[in-house]
């Protein structure tokens, strides 16, 4: 026995040395600290800003990833922990987007000024004090998921290990838990704030965190989606056509394409909802059993509500995808409308195209956001200029998302892409958590009627259902590019945090 131990000892020492060497060669977390301030409603708030990376470890305590983030805290670490100041973890979506849109659009101490709903000219861009920041009511952690920003895998982990619904939820839950511990914030009121796919992530992440013993005070959903059927237009599925129709009608209202246009947008949308539920949905459900007369009558109504030719709806068999609507709606004017925000229009270079060629809203604002944020990151937050910031995971070779999600399986295969089940479970098992959902009326990327449908099919008790608060904005997916909506966004989110953190 002693002989065997003596024989193994050199091998064990060799393995330890090699392992130690591997650890030493791993890139290290780096944080760049600066002092920042923001003036909100005449009050100056002084902040410590820490931008850089945080080492996340797996359940076996092995290095898993460097997670890029920017952490804004009021006062020093000890003071923040003592005051129990709320802390918000925020991110954008994609999947595959870094979080500079929310960072520089509405949440952080600086914001980019864009010409909503027109195109913003090239630099110099305006980077101004953000009077609509939430930093007067909470500390803020902007997170870039692995593959975006400065976030990269460590050790044996690869990018593909993070690129999926469940993989993404797991890595962010580990980051949040370990970040809270490292910064003495475990007893602070805690919030998630996600936009677009970030809301899909939110639903799964709030459930995962709860199972790990971390109850949230609130979850904020910006331009939400929980059931991807509402966006994907699957074959022989009428649901996405149904939930998109009210947004098509809202777009027609905005662009004055409706004869005798009603003055009240919200009353108009109530009428459209009623028509969609009581007439359009039953007509689609009949399928090929719908008579020619019934079909023509329905096409006439669809055309009237959307300012389009009834003949187009006849050719489309009463079913128009969002991409088809982008191209058709303003075809006679030689324009297309925006996917993220249908108030924006752009040039249609192919008047025979079946689908829109690009998103005018994205083209109108992306250069300003990208250049403005990178200037702020490297110049004001003092991040090392040698560190590459990936604005999107599409910069990484082989980016591909795994859409499988635990809880979506039936008969041994994936039957859905839906984290609404997680949202329902988390809210039912934590009857105190509240959810704020912010909807852009002109958002054709994640349509408001789709969110309403999902919420109405979660199977929640009335008491829990009342914990979901819906707000609407006369803007699009990024409603914070619209100045009036920017002010409303701040008011709604700040009130939500104050009321749920008492």
UniProtKB/TrEMBL annotation:
One of its GO terms (molecular function) is serine-type carboxypeptidase activity. SUPFAM superfamilies: alpha/beta-Hydrolases. GO terms for biological process: proteolysis. Gene3D superfamilies: alpha/beta hydrolase. InterPro entries: AB_hydrolase_fold, Peptidase_S10. Keywords: Carboxypeptidase, Hydrolase, Protease. Pfam families: Peptidase_S10. This is Carboxypeptidase.
């Amino acid at each position: 026995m002693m002989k065997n131990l003596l024989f193994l000892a050199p091998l064990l020492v060799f393995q330890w040395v090699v392992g130690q060497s591997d650890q030493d060669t791993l890139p290290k977390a780096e944080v760049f600290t600066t002092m920042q301030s923001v003036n909100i409603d005449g009050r100056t708030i002084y902040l410590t800003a820490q931008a850089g990376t945080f080492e996340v470890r797996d359940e076996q305590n092995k290095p898993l990833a460097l997670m890029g983030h920017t952490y804004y805290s009021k006062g020093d670490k000890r003071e923040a922990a003592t005051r129990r100041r709320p802390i918000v973890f925020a991110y954008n979506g994609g999947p595959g987007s870094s979080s500079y849109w929310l960072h520089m659009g509405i949440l952080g101490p600086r914001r980019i000024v864009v010409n909503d709903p027109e195109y913003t000219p090239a630099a110099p861009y305006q980077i101004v004090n953000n009077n609509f920041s939430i930093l007067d009511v909470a500390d803020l952690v902007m997170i870039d998921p692995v593959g975006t920003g400065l976030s990269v895998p460590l050790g044996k982990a690869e990018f593909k290990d993070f690129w999926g619904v469940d993989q993404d939820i797991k890595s962010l839950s580990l980051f949040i838990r370990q970040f809270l511990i490292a910064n003495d914030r475990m007893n602070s009121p805690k919030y998630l704030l996600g936009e677009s796919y970030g809301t899909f992530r939110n639903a799964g992440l709030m459930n995962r965190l709860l199972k790990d013993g971390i109850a949230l005070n609130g979850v904020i959903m910006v331009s939400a989606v929980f059931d991807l059927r509402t966006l994907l237009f699957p074959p022989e599925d009428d649901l996405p056509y149904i939930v998109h129709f009210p947004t098509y009608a809202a777009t027609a209202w905005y662009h004055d394409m409706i004869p005798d246009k009603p003055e009240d947008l919200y009353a108009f949308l109530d009428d459209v909802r009623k028509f969609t539920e009581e007439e359009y949905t039953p007509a689609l459900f009949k399928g090929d059993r719908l008579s020619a007369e019934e079909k023509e009558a329905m096409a006439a109504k669809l055309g009237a509500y959307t300012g389009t030719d009834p003949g187009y709806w006849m050719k489309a068999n009463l079913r128009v995808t969002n991409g088809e609507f982008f191209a058709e709606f303003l075809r006679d004017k030689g324009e297309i409308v925006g996917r993220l925000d249908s108030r924006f229009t752009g040039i249609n270079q192919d008047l025979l195209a079946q689908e829109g060629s690009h998103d005018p809203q994205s083209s109108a604002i992306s250069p300003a956001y990208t250049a403005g944020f990178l200037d702020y990151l490297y110049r004001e937050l003092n991040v090392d200029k040698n560190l590459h910031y990936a604005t999107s995971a599409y910069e990484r070779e082989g980016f591909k998302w795994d859409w499988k999600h635990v809880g979506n399986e039936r008969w041994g295969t994936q039957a859905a892409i839906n984290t609404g089940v997680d949202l329902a479970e988390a809210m039912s098992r934590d009857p105190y958590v509240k959810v704020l959902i912010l909807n852009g009326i002109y958002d054709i990327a994640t349509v408001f009627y789709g969110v309403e449908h999902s919420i109405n099919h979660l199977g929640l008790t009335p008491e829990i259902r009342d914990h979901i608060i819906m707000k609407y904005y006369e803007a699009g997916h990024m409603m914070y590019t619209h100045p009036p909506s920017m002010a409303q966004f701040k008011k709604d989110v700040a009130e939500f945090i104050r009321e749920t953190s008492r």
